[in-house]
Amino acid sequence: MNFIDRLTTINRKIIYLVLAIVIVIPLIFPSPQKVRVMAPVEKLFNAVDTIHEDKALIINFEYDPQSQPEVEPMGLAVLRHAFKRRIKVLVMSLYVQPLGLAKSALDQVVGEINAESKSNPDSIIYGRDFVFLGWQPGFYIPILGMGESITNVYKTDYYGNKTDTLTLMKQTKNYNNVELLVSLAVSDIPIYWVAYAQNRFGLQVGAGVTAVSAGDFYPYYQSGQFTGLMVGMKGGAEYEELLATRLNIHKRRKAGETLSSITFAHLTIILLIVIGNVGFFIKRRKR
Amino acid sequence: MLLNFLLLTVGIAPPTGVRAYDAPDDGGGVIIMEWQLSSDDAILDGYEIYRSGNAQDFEKVGYVGKGTNSIEDETEDGKKYYYKVTALKDTLRAYSEISLPAMSSAQWINRTKLNVLLAMLILGSIILYFVFGARKGKQLFIRKIAGLQAIDDAVGRATEMGKPILYTTGLESISVISTIASLNILGEVAKKVASYNAKLINPHFDPIVYTVAREIVKEAYNTVGRPDAFDEGSVYFITDTQFAYAAAVDGIMVREKPATNFLIGYFYAESLIIAETGASTGAIQISGTDAIPQLPFLVTACDYTLIGEELYAASAYISREPLLLGAIKGEDIGKLIIGSLLIIGSILGLITKFPVLNFFK
Amino acid sequence: MPSFDPWVWVSALLTLAIFSFLYKDNPFYKIAEHIFVGATNGYAVTFYWHNVLVPRLFNPLFQGHQLWYIIPLTIGILYFTRFIPKISWLVRIPIGITIGYFTGIAIPAGIEASIIKQVGGTLLTSENFARWNAGPLGIVWSIILFIGVLCVVSYFYFSKEHKGVLKVTSGIGIIFIMIGFGAAFGYTVMARVSLLIGRLQFLLGPWLGIIR
Amino acid sequence: MKRTLPLILLMIFGGFGILPFFIPHPKIQNIDSFLRNDLLLILYAFALVLGLGSLLHVHVNKIKHRGQNWQYSWILIVTFIVCSIIGLFGGVSGTGPLPTRIGNFPFDIQTIYLRVEVPLGSTMFALLAFFMASAAYRAFRARSTEATLLLTAAFFVMIGILPLGDKISHHLPSFAQWIMDLPLVAGQRGIIFGIALGALATELKIILGIERSWLGGVE
Predict the structure, then answer these.
(1) Which residues pair with B204 in a beta bridge?
(2) In this structure, are residues A133 and A103 in contact, taking their beta carbons and an 8 Å threshold?
(3) Rounded to a whole number, what is the distance in angstroms from the first to the last CA of chain C?
(4) CATH 3.40.50 fits A33-252, yes or no
(5) Chain D window 127-156: which residues touch C at a Cβ cutoff of 8 Å?
């Protein structure tokens, strides 16, 4: 078994172990990484930042357990941003599975803010500052229905209250009272918001997506249909950076903490591809 | 201080050019109010909007900050409304003249969507022309997809080596286009397998697709005139859970050592597991899918990959099925239209001042 | 300091059961996978009932006495005729209605979002040049994008052999496609790795208490 | 009758789907919002329940006929029943008639979701990182010019999007962003045109009753 043979037949289990180690070490000994913010994330941040106080922001939580680690940091970041700017927030999901994660993200951020707030005005009150609309089936039915009347689609909210009794819903009839919708999704659901809600009602749409579907989104970002785009853990880390530098919100940077592990994992995978190809070409020349 | 003194004596300039009109292309109930900003706009607090039904008694209906020169007012259709705007600075007000009356109404056609209507009619009629043409037996030419040659060579290689051929139709149901395309190609591969007396292994994820595939392979053996050689065990259903299917197919690759693997259909993340084991056994691998997220991995792990529409074209080429052929020919013409729109639109946009982009907003 | 919350231990054991698939497909993995499908659908049933069937159908029909809700109710029940062989064709009525409506809304939406707006984003116009906000360089990028899109479309043109001009343009087209796939490949690696990091953060943090 | 009635319904509702895009008049919009919010919403809910029914149907059959791995189907069905009972009677946020906590041990549907579904779901996909690593070593070869181009672009993006890329040179992140903004958009846009035209062809064939496979969708 000379070196080349050993090089080309590394056991799969060893590769798994190497990857796990390479990820765990930077988690145990964290080294903060300087994040450089690129245009697509900055555009989304500015779009959220410039929402007028008489308009609302809809956050569409569409990530599920399978993609929670990657997209949840974006959800937490946008929620912290909106509540810091006292922007009115509506939260909803088009599928059932994301509901639980939308609720846990909301509970976490609202809990954080209300724990620090002293008086009523600067704490986040359900029904006044935000409403958790929950879920209605039919996918296109809520997307199109909210263009005419949100309370007609979501007659009851997640908790079962009648939505037309909530103060925030009285001033947020439909997309005309919504300045931006940010869709945090695992598949190409944000493209449906553009194809159906933006085309018919002129709704401004931003997106935060898993890196897996990055390729599908850039054509719609380049054509201006998306007013901003966060992609994968890096996108979340960039938004967290903007929260810190622009609004000095210094909460735990869930996305930022993973960047050194991602760096070492990427280097490992690149190395594996190189080794694999070196072995492959040497063997091919021998044959 | 001096500024306030001046204001008190001279007063502020009123907004001018007040105009009210029914909002176009909408369901009615909205009047748009526009005006030229007051020359003192910079120091103003904002503008108040007044409305009246009879041009006498006005009531305030809106307020906007300075620098804004229009507002949308919700109104009742069919009623006349007069408007005027006041520039506001603390308690000082400067009224504009009264606008001509306006009435909101609903429209039956949204003119901003005429480009979509036009595109729908043109592209739709072209596609239908070819689909109906193909059904009437019109001969339609499609080039031989390079991938089909790769398929023939791969089947030939396996039969020379006397090793089996593995074929998987992906993880989607019978109603998905790429599954149907994969079944068409399976029929072609099965004919070659039957004529060369090679061994086919066809494990399935979806029970309905399994039943259809079994008929196709059996039919292939009949058309080649060797109905008795059809092996019942070559087409079978394994499991309907994603990773269990991938693990089972890996097991077959390692045990049976097929010389050629076909991964054609719709795949999810498990395609990586299957393609990896196939590559490590040294088999020739041909993949074909319209699952865009999986294509990058299949391109690097397989010897040949049919990308998206190439899979549809390959299945149309093989099956000569009128609906498929007609659709692909119609779509080809659609691509010609898109190409020419891009070229002509760009030329117009560059040379003339013609607002080309408005057609594509 | 490892956690004493029983739920954290349940989550950790389920996580390890799934990871055991790395060694080989085994009973623990199969148990965990079947629990997942059962829990997912049990969770979904909760919302079908509380969010839709009760507030949108049963309340208006039975409490609100809006009797015309009988129509959607009866058409909906037709779905279940699928299991009754003699009248199973009736299931085609609700299916026909839903497929018809959702196909109808898809046609204009797809044309506008994926053809018209995409053509608009590719046209060589001053507005598109400025969109790159790279000054005069924007013109170069727009031209490259313009050529790239035309070549990629020519690659998927099936009515003529790839010879002569078409051979050149589809050759250029495949280059753009492959670079695009490379970029998507890179991002997908980041995505998969991020998910693994998320799980290891859970095992090391809330479960074993090694990290914050 | 068994085929023509569903096809007629399909074409009528197809029209109801297309018209509101072009006609803003309230007469059409009101019909459209009635169809959506009342009729189709409820049909969709029934379809979801039907989907659930067929899943349980498959697993019950597996147990009856002792199909492969039938024992695990029991686990699926039991988990489903337990979770549905907790969800239906315990209520969405644990406020229903059924008590959803013993002492301070909660077992409402949201806790089960966060503590059972989330770890299972995210770990299932975390496996892919391991398979990615072993496939990188065993399968991803620069076997053709296309594959070489792909791996080179992947290399620049994988390094460029990381803080490491920024450290190596300030141009790397912008080069990685350029790859996403230009070649990727050109490649994807060309593919999008093809898919959009293909979708249009399929939708027209369905709506005009040329493509009738959905009719045969009855076992």
Answers:
(1) B237
(2) no
(3) 10
(4) yes
(5) 127-130, 132, 146-147, 149-156
| Rounded-to-integer distance, Cα B107 and Cα C142, Å | 38
Q: What is the pLDDT of residues A193-217, one digit of tens each?
A: 999 999 888 899 999 999 988 888 9
* CATH class (in words) of the domain with range B2-103: mainly beta
* Cβ–Cβ < 8 Å for A206, A180: yes
Q: Return the number of other C-beta atoms located less than 10 Å from residue A85's C-beta.
A: 14
Rounded to an integer, the average pLDDT of A264-283 is 91
Q: Please, what CATH class does the domain formed by B143-312 belong to?
A: alpha beta
ipTM over 0.90: no
Residues of chain A neighbouring C145 (CB-CB closer than 8 A): 222
D204: pLDDT strictly greater than 70: yes
pLDDT for the residue B288: 95
- Packing angle between helix C70-77 and helix D41-64, nearest 10 degrees? 30
Name the phi and psi angles at B236, rounded to 5: -150, 160
Q: With contacts defined as CB-CB under 8 Å, which chain A residues touch B24?
A: none
SS3 letters for chain B?
A: CHHHHHHHHHCCCCCEEEEEEECCCCCCCEEEEEEECCCCHHHCCEEEEEEECCCCCCEEEEEEECCCCEEEEECCCCCCEEEEEEEEECCEEEECCCCCCECCCCCCCCHHHHHHHHHHHHHHHHHHHHHHHHHCCCCCCCCCCHHHHHHHHHHHHHHHHCCCEEEEEECCCCCCHHHHHHHHHHHHHHHHHHHHCCCEEEEECCHHHHHHHHHHHHHHHHHCCCHHHCCHHHEEECCCCHHHHHHHHHHHHHHHCCCEEEEEEECCCCHHHHHHHHHHCCCEEEEEECCHHHHHHHHHHCCEEEECHHHHHHHHHHHCCHHHHHHHHHHHHHHHHHHHHHHHHHHHHHHCCCCHHHHHC
**Residue A144 with chain C: CB contacts under 8 Å:** 105
